[in-house]
Design a protein that fits this description.
Strand content: 15-25%
Helix content: 25-40%
Shape: elongated
Radius of gyration: 19 Å
Oligomer: single chain
Structural class: alpha+beta
Low-confidence stretches: none
Mean pLDDT: 75
Length: 153
């Protein structure tokens, strides 16, 4: 089987971007559900989007940064759900980082210069934990370290 060229990959990504961008009516014709998608599909799509950005002269990393800001704003608008993130494999170097049971990486931060909303409850916080994947900040009351319950400050 022949490997597709980078131009072909960019074309595939362009078709997906078109469906989600300027032509929203095509969204109703897509039959895939989240259950049909696996990790490789997401990776392949991201690579193809990188090829598309390169082909049309856009900075992919800038698009990811903008998308992350929109994602954080989107989840901040969701109704608050009380949940606790139980951390394991905690390491302390010059900062504290850990992974939760789902494998998501988190990092402790203190005294941010600007307040930002907790991604779970929406409370404005200047310190807490931040997802290393999504960038979502979470206040300390939603985090439990091994052997400790989540604090309910």
């Amino acid at each position: 089987m022949c490997e597709p060229t980078n131009a072909t990959r960019a074309q595939w990504a362009a078709q997906v971007a078109y469906c989600f961008g300027s032509n929203p009516q095509c969204r109703g014709h897509l039959n895939a559900t989240p259950a049909d998608i696996d990790d490789g599909d997401i990776g392949d799509l991201l690579v193809d989007l990188m090829h598309l950005c390169r082909a049309i002269g856009l900075d992919f990393d800038e698009r990811v940064d903008t998308a992350r800001m929109h994602f954080i704003a989107d989840i901040a608008e969701e109704p608050a759900v009380e949940r606790t993130i139980t951390l394991q494999d905690v390491e302390e170097i010059t900062y504290i980082r850990a992974t939760d049971k789902g494998g998501e990486a988190w990092q402790k931060y203190d005294q941010s210069t600007e307040l930002e909303p907790c991604g779970i409850c929406g409370e404005d916080i200047s310190d807490g934990w931040r997802s290393r994947e999504s960038g979502m900040p979470v206040c300390n009351r939603h985090v439990a370290l091994p052997g400790m319950a989540a604090s309910r400050e």
